[in-house]
Amino acid sequence: MNPLEGVVIALRSLVVNPLRSFLTLLGIIIGITAIIAVISVINGLNIYVADKLSNLGPGVFVVDRFGLISNREDMIRAIRRNKRLTMDDAEALAERSTLAEVVAVEVHAFVDVAARGETLKRVDVGGISAEILDIEPYDVEAGRIITPHEVERAAPVAFIGQDIAEKLFPRLDPVGKTLRVANREVMVIGLAQKRGSVFGFSRDNFVKIPITLHQKLFGSRNSVNISVKAADMARMEDTMDEARMILRVQHHLGFDEDDDFGMRSAEGLNALWENLTKIIFNVAIFVVGISLVVGGIVVMNIMLVSVIERRREIGLRKAVGARPRDIRLQFLIESVVLSSVGGAIGISAAYLLSWAIRTYTPLPAAFPLWAPVLAFGICGTIGVFFGLNPAAKAARLDPIEALRSEA
């Protein structure tokens, strides 16, 4: 039998019974739409995390109080055990590390900021050391960034994000204006370029001031984040190990005691995120697989009905010389085509759904180009597996009994 002829017959049956065909394919359409939509969201999140959340720069890692924690129990244990990191810890790293090129410090406080009679609640006011600019350079839209000299003398200056400028200085150039941080007047010397949001949370709601000024305003009790840039990117792991040993000595930890600080790098964050998305994907595959199995069962039932309805056609084909394998191939082709049409509709629906998620929600969804190949592969497998029984039943029909059928 010519396979193309089987495809034409299958498509003709879809057109003749459009409502029955749609209801038959509904399970497969829903399953394929769901699985590709999940893949699109996970793919978009992976790209987003790699680009924005874990973009620490090449050869850079951060030492902070907690590091990467993935469950509640570890967080409670870390809160009880881990010490606050201090400027002394950063100085110890800078002085003793032989593999680090730059050691920088940043500390955060969430406080109210006011200007021109307006007040913003819980703004991220970050104190930065001069070295931070060698690790995490800021994109400047207007003015300039804080200089090392201003850090040394705790100058009352600030570098602000777009949200601060838009809310406190609407339609004005903020550079040269003053704002109040913790009852201290500071002058705006620079405005950062817009950075956008992460999952709906703005990345432009910040004020950067010299870390020396930050400690004068808020004290030195807040734990600092220490950013370290390895001199040789190829020795990133060695640099992290050296930093760990220096801080363990600094904190007087015994050889059998756990670290009382955390370390994170882009590679570590990406690995943690990939493990999380694998779990989400596996759960989604299990749930969506149920829909695909149900869809396959419906396809098999419809194909069995088709065998009964076309008994005379099958008998006539056998009478004029069609072999059982020709009949079997014909029904298998029809089953695969039926499933593939459902897959094509599901792919189109998933593409539109991914676009809607990306456009109207904070979730970044990226439709992967290999998704249609995966979808048609799944549909082909469903078509073959669930079409075997109807195809075998059609191939076993006795031509004489089939020709006597009134169906």
Q: Give, in spatial order, the strands making up the sheet with the most strands.
A: 2-3-10-5-7-6
Q: Into how many domains do the coordinates divide? A: 2
Percent of sequence in beta strands: 15-25%
Query: How confident is the prediction overall: mean pLDDT?
Result: 83
Report the major sheet: 6 strands, mixed, barrel
Q: What proportion of the residues is helical, as a percent range?
A: 55-70%
The geometry reads as: elongated
What is the structural class?
A: alpha+beta
First-residue to last-residue Cα separation: 24 Å
Total beta-strand segments = 12
Radius of gyration: 32 Å
Give the low-pLDDT segments.
none
Please write the string of helix (H) and strand (E) elements. Answer: HHEHHEEHEHEHEEEEEHEHEHHHHH
- The tally of helices reads 14
Task: Please tell me about this protein's structure.
- This protein is an alpha+beta fold and 407 residues long.
- The protein has two domains: 3-51 and 271-404, no CATH class; 83-260, no CATH class.
- 57% of the residues lie in helices and 18% in strands.
- It is built from 14 helices and twelve strands.
- The chain has helices at 3-16, 18-53, 72-81, 87-96, 132-135, 148-152, 162-168, 211-218, 236-250, 266-309, 311-319, 324-360, 371-395, 399-404, and strands spanning 60-64, 100-115, 118-128, 140-143, 157-160, 178-181, 184-192, 197-198, 201-202, 206-210, 225-230, 262-265.
- It has a six-stranded mixed beta barrel with strand order 2-3-10-5-7-6. A two-stranded antiparallel sheet has the order 8-9.
- Strand 8 and strand 9 form a beta hairpin.
- The chain is elongated, with a radius of gyration of 32 Å.
- The two termini are 24 Å apart.
- The mean pLDDT is 83.
